[in-house]
Every structure is written in structure tokens, then in C-alpha cells.
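Can't paste images in this forum, so I'm doing it all in text. The chain is below; anyone willing to post the predicted C-alpha cells underneath?
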Amino acid sequence: MSKIGSLGARLHRGEVGYDFVKNRKIWYGISILITITAILGLAVRGLNMGIEFQGGAVFTTPKHMSASVSQAETFAEDASGHDAIVQKLGDGSLRIQIAGIDTGKSDEIKDALSKDLKVNSEQINADLVGPSWGEQIANKAWEGLAIFMVLVVIYLAIAFEWRMAVAALVALVHDITITTGIYALVGFEVTPGTVIGLLTILGYSLYDTVVVFDSLKEQTKDITKQSRWTYSDLANRSINGTLMRSINTTVVALLPVAGLLFIGGGALGAGMLNDISLSLFVGLAAGAYSSIFIATPLVADLKEREPQMKALKKRVLAKRAQAGTEGAPVADTSDDATDFDDEPEDAAPAVVGPRDQSASRSRGRGRPSGKRR
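Text version of the structure:
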């Protein structure tokens, strides 16, 4: 653990580092491949929308049912003529969900289930959701997501600049696409809990991205007054400086979510935990990835298209070629590598070793004091 802490401190000081920005084409390629896979999953399999979005009915049986999940699923499909999802709850009761049925048919299905399961129909609880109400919920969810995106872009454009706002928006779309694609491939049901999870991971992804952007904004202040670092160099320093913080916060956040997904949702069979925890787990991992490998390298790409940044890069590369150090170092061991005001462009190189003393100060040294011994 001490070694990890020491590594984090060295990354923050710029003593070691990895060139994320230089290898950005690799990360872009990986992200494009994952995104295409997610889109194909959405196109081929589609999302398994819950009854809250497409209407239907949920029937809950009494406790300690003798019928198995597969038997109840067969009974429900025969009674309704639609696909049914059956889950066994912790108290032994069965939760039978049938989507896409008319609410007026629920009484017939309820009576048929009571006969097949050999229970009184009054002991079966039925919750009905009309298709029009489900459609309104879906539309409101998309409207809320669109408003969230617009507000994020406006805020980041004001607090930072429009290039960072664009990069953050691309990272958010990347995270949403991957998360929804995983939902389509896995086949988990999309419920209001899923929407809550998506909005949560969007906020977390933005937090991670803004931390890197804030460091980048501070390091690139008055960047054109020097000829030592390009914008990509300082973008890379910002990623490395906040890398351990991003990793630590992501791991700490993923551990309880993994407990909800694999223990609460998998072992205990809690449906709502599955809906929320899968979106959180995938989204948190994708958000941490996009903030490091997508957002900041994309900002560097957009920024270095500016004439000032092109001229700066040309000066930096020319100076490195002249000094015989072509290929910028990822890190710098100086105490303040971005203190541009104290490092003028034409400053003479520092002299290593003891300084020469002026003649006026050295005259009095080494002379006899006049006293004889």
C-alpha cells in the first residue's frame, strides 16, 4: 500500500507517468469497437423494456409457494398469451410480470393463475400499468436526459471552454451507449431504477472528467509564454497527476455496487437491485475510462488545431531538436513545471555547481589580519 501511495505522489509531481495522449488513437479505436458492439446489440436484440414503459401487469402470489419459477412462467404465458418474467422473492412468494397486455384482461389472467397455482384469487395482488402512462414515463425520461446534456454543455463551456464541453459531451454519449448496449446484450429489464442508475453514472463520469479538466486549465495558464511544453504534454501531465485519484474513487465506488449486483441481484434474486446495480457498475467503469482515455486526449486534439497552439508546438519541437532531446519527456522533476512567468523563453541555461563569487566580496577573504602568531 505504501508503494501505491508513493506511486501516486510521484505521478502527481510528474516524476513518472504514461503518455496517454500520444497513444490516443489506440484508445479511440478501442472505444469505437466497444461502441459499435453496443450499437449492434441494441439493433439486434433491443432493450427489454419493463412494464413501466410499455404497460402491463405484475402479479404477486402469497408467501411460500410450492410452484417453481418455470412452472409459474408456463402458467402465466398460457393464461396471457404473452411472455412472462417470474422471480422468486425472499419470502417465497412469486412475482409474475406480464408486459404488453390490456389492463382489462388482468382479471382473467388472475383467475387462471389462481387455479393453476391452487390459491385463492383474492390472495394474488395485481398491479396494473396502462400503456399510455408507460409511454409518458419513457418520454419524460428522454426529455430529462436531453435537458441534462444541454445544461452540462452550457456549464462546461462557461466554466472552462467549448472544446472541453464538446469532449465531455462525447464522453457522456460514449458512457450511455456502452451501458445501454450492455443492457441489450445481457437482457436485463429496463425500469425506472435503470434510469436512476444512468443519471447517477452520468454525474459521476462528469465529476471525474471535470477533475482532470480543472487540473488541465490550471497547468495551461499562460502556456504560450514558454517554449518547453506543448498542450498535449500538459494534458498528459494532468491525466497522470489525477490518475491515482480517479482509480481510487472508481474502485471504492465499484466495490459496493459489485456487492449489489453479484450478491443482492445474483444470489438473492432481487430484481430492482439488478436494474440499478448493472447500470451503475457498467457506467462507473465506462465513466472512469472515458475521463482518462477519451475526454482529455480529445481536448488536446481540438486545442492543438488552434493557430497559437500550432505555433507553440512548432517552437517546442524546434527547441527540442536543437537541444538534441526530440521526443518530449512525459514528466518533469522540477517543483513547478508550469510556472511560465518564472521561465522566460530566452532565459540562459542554469549553471550547475557553485556560483563564482564577485571580486568585491572575495577581496577580504584570505588576507592576513595583521596579527602575528
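Confidence is low (pLDDT under 50) at residues 325-373. The radius of gyration is 31 Å.
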